[in-house]
Amino acid sequence: MDGKNYYYGQGRVYLSPWVPGQSTSWRWVGDVSELSVEITHDMAYQKNSLQGRVANTNRFIVGSECKISTLWYERSPENLSLLLYGTNVVRRAQAVTETLQPGIKAGGRYSLENQNIWAIYIPSLTEGIDYLVDTLWGVLEFLKTPIKQPLKVSYKHAGSTSTPLLNQSPVEVSLRYEGINLAENSRPVLVELFRLQFDPATAIDLINNDTALSGMETSADALLDLTRQSTDDFGQFGRFVIINSLDASSLGLLAPLVASAAVGGEITTIYPKKITGE
């Protein structure tokens, strides 16, 4: 056995917004340890009776579905936005004034809207005597119950990117897998799925006691791309491409076609042209 019928894949997964008829930039989703495609069919059967026994005599495919499952490790804002159905909110570093509503009591721990804060000022109160500040998390711990409430808190913060949960509709994307088959001398393999809709994340681990990094299990449905023709080379769901090696035999099928133009000097452009009948 020469191993040419085996597959052991590694590679990168890219996503881009699905926009009919338009090209969009591909975004690498980061470390992905698993990627699989599952294709299922809905079947209908024709049954005939022969000598008292009923058996299937014909089988028809009446519907097809395509799903993918992946395991992501990078919790970038873009990945979280896709899986949490949330629109990222970017806050720039700036000075703000925030109002804490009445009900503050001594011993209480109250959070501000922003984190990584400094230059805190609360009128008529003194830090270290009336309250303490956890600057990283943006939290105030009151040592005394403020007499005048509500409180206005002025401070500066370093900025952040947050992803609200489930505040937008699902976004349809295209997937591109650029991989290599390690079982076949690292031969390149390309898989494209034209129109995907990811399911929302069902679980994201926050506290871990395992020895491995926490991953995000994802799944998506591959939808039919009706903007493509079913008869073309790409299909309507996607395509699996095994890329041929560039060798002497393939190079011999191409001959240079030279076109030149003189615009402020000579410009020469070489186009590949397939040789036929030679």
Could you explain how this protein is built, in words?
It is built from two helices and 18 strands. It is mainly beta and 278 residues long. The chain has two domains: 9-41 and 57-86 and 166-243, Pnp Oxidase, Chain A (Roll), CATH 2.30.110; 90-162, no CATH class. The strands form five sheets. Strands 1, 2, 3, 4, 13, 14, 15 and 16 form an eight-stranded antiparallel β-sheet that branches. Strands 6-11-8 form a three-stranded antiparallel β-sheet, with no helix packed on it. Strands 7-10-9 form a three-stranded antiparallel β-sheet, with no helix packed on it. A hairpin with a 4-residue loop joins β9 and β10 (139-142). 13% of the residues are buried.
Estimated helix fraction: under 10%
> What is the CATH first-level class name of the largest domain?
Mainly Beta
The CATH topology of the largest domain is what? Pnp Oxidase, Chain A
Q: Alpha-carbon distance between the termini?
A: 37 Å
Order of helices and strands: EEEEHEEEEEEEEEEEEHEE
Named CATH architecture of the largest domain: Roll
Short description:
With 278 residues, the chain is mainly β. The chain has two helices and 18 strands.
Give the SSE map.
Blueprint: E1 9-17, E2 27-28, E3 32-50, E4 53-72, H1 77-84, E5 89-91, E6 94-100, E7 109-111, E8 117-121, E9 131-134, E10 139-142, E11 151-157, E12 160-162, E13 172-181, E14 187-198, E15 216-222, E16 238-242, H2 248-251, E17 254-262, E18 266-274
